[in-house]
Design goal:
5 helices, elongated, mainly alpha
Length: about 90
Amino acid sequence: MEVSKVSLTKYAVAKRLQISQKILRDWIAKESEIGNQRRKITTGRQTSCPELEEYLHDNLLILRTQGVKVKWVWFLAKGKKWYEEQFSERL
């Protein structure tokens, strides 16, 4: 199978990526530096209570399958209630 090579102008590439031509020019100039950067392994976010997140996620999936719209307030109310039940000695 042959792959046809399409050459795009820098203007077209910048427009497709929705960035300015200056940013694209800087990226091309620093291509070797950008390629050699170390990438983070984690997202940088550590949960303080993984059990709570798992509980909320499981319930969220159940409600989504039922077609229920879940808002931010639901997370606060349900999370607070669960935390108080599980860790009443910490409060």
